[in-house]
Amino acid sequence: MTPVFTLNGAETTLDCAPDTPLVTVLRETLCLTGTKLGCGIGRCGACMVLLDGAAVNACLLMAWQVTGREVVTIEGLRARPAAAPILAALAEANAFQCGYCAPGVVVTLAGLLTARPDAGDDDVLRALEGNLCRCTGYASILRGARAAAARLRAAA
Asked: Has this prediction a pTM greater than 0.90?
């Protein structure tokens, strides 16, 4: 089986074993290193990608599972309308220190706020439960997420 899928807007054919984790393919084969490998068991959120619009852990997806689907990484997110307000709001809130968690947080928020621009604090907190940050204590991330949600609501 040769997985064929849409990656950041372009049709992509993979030459790998079907049971290769997507995070490995993205980083090692396709050189898309914005998707980070953290825990490898779906607990830290560093490897988040959008799969058909929903944030998922790329470490838990095998290559065969993306066949015929759309995958968007942090590198492809800038082409999405929600990206600019999210990135700006997080930057203004000084949401990140080391930045290792940043791509996963941004992708998670993009998935949530694209599907639900009216998402409230509880929705944001629930969505970010799978994203671990060791530097910030989350207050600045949550401030940025609230500001991003408000910007997207205002634009809608």
From this structure: yes
